[in-house]
Amino acid sequence: PAALSARLVHESSLKPVRVILISDRYLNQQKGLPRGYLSALEPIIEEDEWKRAKQLVEAFMKRGGVGEELQRSLERKACNTDNWVSLWGKLEYFGNRSPVVINANVPIACPRLDFRDKQGQIRCAAKLIVALLEFKTTIENETLPAENLGGKPLCMEQYSQLLSTCRIPGLERDSVVFHAKIGNPPKHITVVYNSQFFVVEVYHNDGTPLTVDQLCVQMESICTSTSETTTEPVGILTTLDRDSWSKAYLSMKDQTNKESLSAIERSIFTLCLDRAIPRESDKYGTCDFHLITHGGGSQWNSANRWFDKSLQIIVAEDGSWGLNLIHIVADGTVSMALTDYLVASMKKPEMRQASILPLLMPQKLHFHVTPDIKEIIEQAKRSMDRNIQNFDLSVMVFDHFGKNYLKAHNMSPDAFIQMAIQLAYYRMNKQVCASYEAVSQRMFRRGRVSLLLSTTSVSAAFVKAFDDPQKQNTEKIDLLEKAIKTHKENIKAVIGGHDIVAHIIALRLQAVENKLPMPDIFRDISYKKILNYQFVTSNTGSVGVHQVDENSGYSLCYSVHNSHFIIEMATSNTHKRLNTRHLIQNMKDALLDMRALLEQAPRAT
């Protein structure tokens, strides 16, 4: 990022991009930090706070001072790690002790399929398994097409982490195990039905994968053998906060539990065969998003999961389906690429393949549930249901215009929506919000997602001027154009590694790591405000993805289409001041009013 230049070299279709760090004359390279940090702070703090922040930045940047010391320390770390930004991101991720459900995992709801019965569900599940095994082969053979952005190669490493991976609970910090990279890679998946777990071998002894018809036989066998309802729903334990789950996990020490846990953790992925949950009557059907995010509650499918698995494929009897992934293995661009592959595979005509090879029947996994674990399971049910009650989700299909209309006006659809978000919030609260947009940094080796502060001085000027009767439309158009231009430039900068927010956070973490007294710049209200965001937003491509941080504001995802947008907004009801239905209506109004502005004051061509 800002202080560390990088040159990118492409190696092969799947091998990650290599980064060469150039850290000469680091003080010259660091000059962008104070200007960028203060510029980022300006629209979201008061004037007196900004003046104090300016003084603190100047003190921090003094030659021979603590800022220089922390910068040198960060550069040493950069020379010894592939990607220091991703490194501190992992530390933050594994240190978070909130439940992964809703707060951390990435749910992706896919277009509903045309079946409404058990046979359709089983066949759909079998086709998805075959498609995923085909995708797995392209990863292993390094035949997955190399991705690039603007002609520059993107790191492909995340694809190799998608499968055969599991998050492992720990007492203070979790970890993740990549079983595909360990000797004797797994050849099985786990299937969950009626909150019971089964091992299904998906390869024959000769290494060929099972066919759709053979997998249907396996699924039917599972569905007809689980009439037993007295089995404890151990999957619900993975919905607990990480402290409670890690204690329960460590207490499941007997051989039966160890073998069952290992089978789940080592499996290529988990397939969840769900019951259909009651559908709401709203226009888009938020039911699908609830199903994929949390399963609907303890009385429905929340125990029909293993939320620590890197990838869960969820298929319900009513045609609803989607993916639930742990965020540490892959960011949105990779998750969406997999999703698009699966969606396309489901549209292909089915090829019937006869096989006479014998099948290993599914093996049910057993758990020894002690009275203590049984009580924790009941606690997990209550906790999950309470968290779902606090989960506020709204979805809107905005069909008044889409990408084509904005492109005709030379407007970036992404930046236009970002300005609408800020305008909607300003109208409701009469203050500028700190809004972030997720930006991929995969042009760097092991690059992950970073957050761009999309609120800028020019976007703040635009939202303040929009409803001001003293302002002319031509002035408002000019402010909108400047805000969109600035947003596009800032996105390009963050993609290229010029990441002010990541840099300042990394410097603070160097102070913690080196056990230095915390510099005043990091104890000031300005530093707290730049991280106290009201929105984390993401342009997700084709379907909805969201994560809700119970300690912040809104999670907002949108997908851009030729003639419409799909906007999904989520928050925690523990914040009584937050309301997704109210805000999403205000966002609709903002989009319409911004279009009216474009039409009232047409741009010169």
From TrEMBL:
Superkingdom to which the source organism belongs: Eukaryota
Gene Ontology molecular functions: carnitine O-acetyltransferase activity
Keyword annotations: Acyltransferase, Transferase
Pfam families named in the record: Carn_acyltransf
Catalytic residues as annotated in Swiss-Prot or TrEMBL: H327 (proton acceptor)
Keyword Transferase assigned: yes
GO BP: any one term: carnitine metabolic process, CoA-linked
The keyword Acyltransferase is assigned to this record: yes
Residue ranges of domain Choline/carnitine acyltransferase in the record: 36-588
Annotated Gene3D superfamilies: Chloramphenicol acetyltransferase-like domain, Choline/Carnitine o-acyltransferase, domain 2
GO cellular component: peroxisome
PANTHER family, sorted: CARNITINE O-ACETYLTRANSFERASE, CARNITINE O-ACYLTRANSFERASE
Family: Belongs to the carnitine/choline acetyltransferase family.
Descriptive protein name: Carnitine O-acetyltransferase a
